[in-house]
């Protein structure tokens, strides 16, 4: 297996990122300096492990939801900083509570003035699991953050979609099979589970 060093990456990196010969030369010099600082060669497996660590750190970061912050700040009537605080808290399993089913967990927090007095927070549902038939005693708004689900009409609701369920509506949901589902939720009243899977 061939080893990759910073200097062996220069041609590819420079070709992608340098706009001229002067920048390519500067990048080559920087890579040479970096090579001197870290002379240990990295094999493909080590690079893959580093990439996996980087992706895992990103997937655990609240910033991975930053593309949805515009929607989320309006949804919860919170500033971006207040929203980041909630995501930080939500990163701790101890902050979650058991939901109405074993594969559902809940994270409650207080939204801003526009949603004062309403039940606001995040709902986490295990991948591949159903949410059985239930009736909405009041309206519910759901903004999908991760994963997604199919409703009774087989419509797919995925990240960034806003699903509004009206008072008195009744349906079931089937979660995506490939990853856990994370929802931002605003409830005006409880839901009543009317059927178990």
Number of domains: 2
CATH T-level topology of the largest domain: Jelly Rolls
The radius of gyration is 23 Å
Number of β-strand runs: 11
Shape category: elongated
> How are the strands of the largest sheet arranged?
1-2-3-10-5-8
Proportion of residues in helical segments: 25-40%
Query: Would you identify the regions where 5 or more consecutive residues have pLDDT less than 50?
Result: 1-7, 54-59
Label the structural class.
Answer: alpha+beta
- H/E element sequence: HHHHHEEEEEEEEEEE
Tell me what the structure shows:
The protein is an alpha+beta fold and 197 residues long. The chain folds into two domains: 6-60, no CATH class; 65-193, Jelly Rolls (Sandwich). The chain is built from five helices and eleven strands, in the order αααααβββββββββββ. Strands 1-2-3-10-5-8 form a six-stranded antiparallel sheet, covered by helices on one side. Strands 7-6-9-4-11 form a five-stranded antiparallel sheet, with no helix packed on it. β1 (97-98) and β2 (104-108) form a beta hairpin. α1 packs antiparallel against α2 (21-37). The longest helix is centred in the N-terminal third of the chain and has 17 residues, at 21-37. It is elongated and about 70 Å long. The termini are far apart. The relative contact order is 0.12. Residues 1-7 and 54-59 have low confidence and may be disordered.
List the helices and strands and how they pair.
Elements: H1 6-17, H2 21-37, H3 44-60, H4 69-76, H5 80-90, E1 97-98, E2 104-108, E3 119-125, E4 130-136, E5 140-146, E6 149-150, E7 156-157, E8 162-165, E9 170-175, E10 181-187, E11 191-193
Antiparallel strand pairs: 1-2, 2-3, 3-10, 4-9, 4-11, 5-8, 5-10, 6-7, 6-9
Helix pairs in contact: 1-2
């Amino acid at each position: 297996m061939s080893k990759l060093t910073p200097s062996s990456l220069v041609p590819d990196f420079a070709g992608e990122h340098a706009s001229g010969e002067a920048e390519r030369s500067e990048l080559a010099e920087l890579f040479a300096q970096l090579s001197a600082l870290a002379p240990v060669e990295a094999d493909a497996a080590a690079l893959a492990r580093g990439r996996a660590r980087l992706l895992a750190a990103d997937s655990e970061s609240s910033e991975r939801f930053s593309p949805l912050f515009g929607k989320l700040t309006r949804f919860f009537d919170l500033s971006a900083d207040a929203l980041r605080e909630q995501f930080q808290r939500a990163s701790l399993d101890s902050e979650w509570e058991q939901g109405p089913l074993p594969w559902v967990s809940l994270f409650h927090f207080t939204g801003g003035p526009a949603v004062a007095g309403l039940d606001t927070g995040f709902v986490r549902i295990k991948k591949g699991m159903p949410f059985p038939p239930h009736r909405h005693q009041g309206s519910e708004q759901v903004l999908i953050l991760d994963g997604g689900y199919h409703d009774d009409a087989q419509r797919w609701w995925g990240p960034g979609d806003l699903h509004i369920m009206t008072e008195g509506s009744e349906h079931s949901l089937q979660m995506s099979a490939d990853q856990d589902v994370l929802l931002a939720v605003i409830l005006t009243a409880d839901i009543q589970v009317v059927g178990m899977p």
